[in-house]
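User: Need the bound-state model for fructose -6-phosphate:
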Amino acid sequence: MCGIIGYTGCDKAVPILLEGLKNLEYRGYDSAGVAVQTADGIRMIKATGKVENLAAKAESTLGLYGVCGIGHTRWATHGSPSDVNAHPHMSADGRFAIVHNGIIENYLELKKDLEKKGVEFKSETDTEVIVQLLAYYYDGDVRKSLMRTVARLTGSYAVAVICADCPGVVYAARMSSPLIVGVGAGENYFASDITALIRHTKDVIDLDDGETAEISMDGVRIFNRYGRPVEKKLRHILWDIAAAEKGGYPHFMLKEIMEQPQAIKATIEPRIKNGRVELDDLDIDMSAFDRVLITACGSAYHAGCVGRLVIETLCRIPVEAEVASEFRYRNAVMSEKTLVIAISQSGETADTIAAMREAKKNGATVLAIVNVVGSTIAKLADHVIYTWAGPEIAVATTKGYVTQLVVLDLFAVWAAERLGRLGGEEYDGLIRSIKALPSKAQRALDLSGGAKELAKIYHDRSSMFFIGRNLDYAVAMEGSLKLKEISYLHSEAYAAGELKHGTIALIEPGRLVAALCCCDRLYEKTASNIQQVKARGAKVLALAPESNRAIYGEADYVIQVPDVHPLLFPAVEIIPMQLFAYCVALENGCDIDKPKNLAKSVTVE
Ligand code: F6R
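Assistant: Bound-state model below.
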């Protein structure tokens, strides 16, 4: 979703802003713009489409020579993607320029108010009210006017502002939308995401809700919601620039698929000590809960569906999983005996945040499984377990999802042992199997060669199905989502036993059905579903463990996955499906890392 960068220093601002925006492209956007302070006041350029279009415009525009400015990639919410709606927005008097992430819920009311006072608006955006309010309240003190402005806003915002009267200073404010300060030598930055800054600095300060900040080339000042200065800690980013680059792969998605063995290892290794799962920072008494509710969106929800089955199996405690956009409005029955697990790669997903707030309001304890340190979800939760996947740039999650599965496995084993429901050889066996997952994931990658050949045959079909039972069904949902989101080939995931209740009508000769067959105890059942679709002319691709030889008598194509503990199959079984989706998207000439209409971090409802 939208991205922000702000820069002040002694280098030319525009190239730095454009480079930052380029690094934010993965978040998804439809237009971009920059504004810089110049000797002739604030100059601004904007363009719809790619940052390249903006860069071309910058090249042919004279006078963009300032050393202090702001930039933005916009993902349209209020008003269509157009130059006029793109950010930055300027106040009618040309004194202020602003970039904004988030949504101002009361913008119509504020707009009417300002219009009555004679202010003329240019765009359809909610953002423009912020900059017009800034100008309206301005009496020579930008910070004061910023504080008065944000006090009138309802909703979420991360804003960066420049003022023609204050050369070399960028101002910012944050509420429910991520914003960090990047601290450099003789230069400082604001950004919505560290990837915009990592080439310049690895030292950042996380802004908290209600805070405002100002940066100049030699200083950073942060103020709390009452305008009092606050001291904040620097956070040093541990990953380096190589982690945010493609490293020789044609796409981030492929790189991230290939990185999964390493990401799983990084997530598991620090948590298994002397043959036991140790979740150091987790101070939860599992016996205090009578149920677990898992909530998340998209792929993270699919990870939750796997987690539901694994936790329930091992802990024998009721577990439900629900998409956060439904959960937040369901008025779910919760109490202090409920453990809510919120799962998120970005840590900034608006629906998941709202679901967590709802859970906390009802007295539940919230445990977050998150990838991004310092994110809103990490801060809001009572307890956090990080997935050490490293930066995930491709919009479609792969290593983020797999590490969520692994954390859920670790948590389930940890909780089951604490509840006295798991021990002895069963416990030791699970630990051994979890420790083997990195090498098993590598084996799954090695066995996935067939995905490319199948993509060549089936990439231009109108639809396909994924079927499976139990954990296989939970993984089928993720396999199906991966395919449709990046290749635009329609697909559906179905619980294999449910097909005959309707969807089997859509099975026609030549239709590809991926049958997930890793759930050994239900294999015979899935095999009979395979026969049902084959009888209607479907072509069946089976994903089955290497030890399953019978499958060769059932399916048209087989992709093998390594044998692992029955509860751990999802983490290896998804890998060939990710590669299949990737190869289909490649055949279809899709923009794999930035699928149309999608955003990496969905910070709006
Ligand atoms: C799909 C995908 C999305 C995200 C969802 C939640 O590949 O990436 O479905 O899983 O938007 O995002 P996070 O995990 O950041 O909360």
